[in-house]
Amino acid sequence: MSYVTHNEETQYMLEQMKAVLAADSPTGYTRHAAALVYHAFEALGFAPQYTNKGGVLVRLSEGEPSESSNGILLEAHLDTLGAMVAQVKDNGRLRVSPLGGMNANNAETENVYVVTRSEKMLEGTLQMKNASVHVNGEYNKTERSWDNLEVVLDEEAYTKAETEKLGIMTGDIVCFDPRTRVTASGYIKSRFLDDKLSVAILLGYARHLSQGAKTKRPVHCHITVFEEVGHGGSASFPEGVSEVLSVDMGCVGEGLACRETQVSICAKDSGGPYHYDVVSGLIEAAKRENVDFAVDVYPFYGSDAEAGLRAGHDVRHGLIGAGVYASHGYERSHVKGMENTLKLLKAYLG
């Protein structure tokens, strides 16, 4: 069984989420997923453009003329974790280097796709070296680190020369299977909900505006492509923007209040506090419209909004997102968390 909804808005977001999750986009290899998002905005009647970095920038609402210098930039990132081929080994297997914060402890045994420079895709699995328990007496004691993992290709390639003959070379991208599922109870399970779930939510908000909803302030949207390495939101600020709101995953874990069914409002993360007035405005909007939310402090986190401030942009900043458990692993959220995030965007910007 799978989740069934008669809410067209939710159905649209789920469809977009599944589409972007299925489009591989490790940091540095995002153009195909960006094209998908670009065309989704076009289909809604907007006029997106690509940034030089390869992100997608689009104006969603003109707002009122008196508010032209008080625009808001919504950001979500399309790039994900992944890996890069660092060496073709003598045994034909691949040593890889992580892209972003991919953790070796939860990457082991995942199915992967190696993308060559000619766009050829070759399947394989990320395994520990000497991965057979019946052969390796040190299996349980071996540290799961990138030095101890390798990609085993699903090809008859047992030497460096045989693997290179397949077209593989150092610098090729390694994409991880997201393993996306939406359960009958509404839970969303997948790698890379951080932050493709939010990309789908912003497409849902764009759909809302395309159907005639108005905003007082000009609203822009930037789908960034280098967030996982820290500079996705550092550039491409449209003229007149005075505030940036990052729509990224909300943290779920011990010591935090947020659940997967809620929208999280971040008051502070490892980069410092978010703008007090923005956080207060988000809380007020959530209370006014009965949005199910939580306010939390994230201990190990950074956002596109902060990247913009560090780049020198004089803007207020905030961060919200649907609750996501097991971040940077096999993540879990809920349809209600997605819906509550959209409700907060409508309440805050309406």
Automatic annotation (TrEMBL):
Active site: 227
One Pfam family matching this protein: Peptidase_M42
GO BP, sorted A to Z: proteolysis
Keyword entries, A-Z: Aminopeptidase, Hydrolase, Metal-binding, Protease
Listed name of the protein: M42 family metallopeptidase
GO MF term list: aminopeptidase activity; metal ion binding
Cofactor(s) for this UniProt protein: a divalent metal cation
